[in-house]
C-alpha cells in the first residue's frame, strides 16, 4: 500500500453517557476500537448496514463528534487530540460530500457563493479570482459557468451533487469523505457521479473515504474495503478479495442480499437462509463474537471468546475464527451475481 495519509487506531465513538439531571449513565459505543488506514491517492470503501457506525467514523474524522478513545493520525497530526476544533490547515485538507443533495446546500446562497465560500475563508484570493476559480470548478464537474448565479432549487439532484463536489474540490484537499454520495440519486445519475469522482481522483491524487451500504458499488470504485458490523470492523482487505472471496460471514451475508434474477436460485437462497439463526434485530451479543446471534456458522467457541483480528489469504484481515480455516474457500458470491 502507498504511504498512509490517514491512520485510525482503536477509535471509539460513544454517544450519551449522562442523564438530563447530570447523573452518570452508560453511553452507547457507536464505534468500538476501529482501526483503518487510507493511503495517498487511495479509495477506502466503508460498508455495512444502517446503524453499523460508518457515519460515526466519518463524523469523528470531520470533527463533528468527539472521539472517546483512540487516535486519528492525519499527516502526523492526531485529530482525536484536537479538542478545540481543527486548525485551518487541517480543515482545508479534509472536505466532505454528504448523502442528500437537497439538504446539504444552503438554499439561500447562489452556486457562486456556495463554491467560493471555502476560497473566501481559506485563501487570499480576490473576488474576481474566486469567480474565475468557481467557473473552472463548474466546468470540471460538468456544469456551465452560467449556472453560477442560480440557486440550488433550480437544479436536479444530480446537478446539486455536482455543485457539492465542486465546493469540496475548491481547496484541492488531500482527503474527501463521501458519505453515501449517490444513494439518493437514480441509477444513471449515480454512474455519472461515480465516473466524475474517478476522474478527479486520478487527476489530482487525492484520497477518498467512501461510505455506503452497497458492497457492489463500493467494490466498483474502491481500492480497499472495510466492513462494519455494530461498531466493529469485521473485515478489511483489497476490494477484489473482499468482494470475490469474503472471509467473514457478515460480508457474505451482505453479498447474499443482492437480488438474483433467476427465481430458482432465489428460492434456493431463501431455503438456505431458513437454516440460519433467527434474530429480530442486529443486536450485539453480550460476550464473544458480536455477530454470533445472526451467524449461520456460529460455533460454541464464538459465544465464549472474542475473535482476534486474523490475516486472510489474498490480503487483509477478518475478525472471525473461521479465517483460520477455509471460509475463504467457500463460494464467494451467490451464483448469478456479477460485479457492476
From TrEMBL:
Q: What is its main location?
A: membrane
Which BP terms does GO give this entry? peptide transport; transmembrane transport
Keywords, alphabetical: ATP-binding, Nucleotide-binding, Transport
Q: Which InterPro entries match?
A: AAA+_ATPase, ABC_transp_ATP-bind, ABC_transporter-like_ATP-bd, ABC_transporter-like_CS, Oligopep_ABC_C, P-loop_NTPase
Q: How does it sit in the membrane?
A: Peripheral membrane protein
- State a GO cellular component annotated for this protein: plasma membrane
Provide the protein's localization: Cell inner membrane
Q: Where is the ABC transporter domain?
A: 6-255
Single GO term (MF): ATP hydrolysis activity
Superkingdom of the source? Bacteria
Q: Which family does it belong to?
A: Belongs to the ABC transporter superfamily.
Q: Give the NCBIfam families listed for this entry.
A: oligo_HPY (TIGR01727)
Which protein is depicted?
ABC transporter ATP-binding protein
Species of origin reads Primorskyibacter flagellatus
The taxonomic lineage of its organism, from the top, reads: Bacteria, Pseudomonadati, Pseudomonadota, Alphaproteobacteria, Rhodobacterales
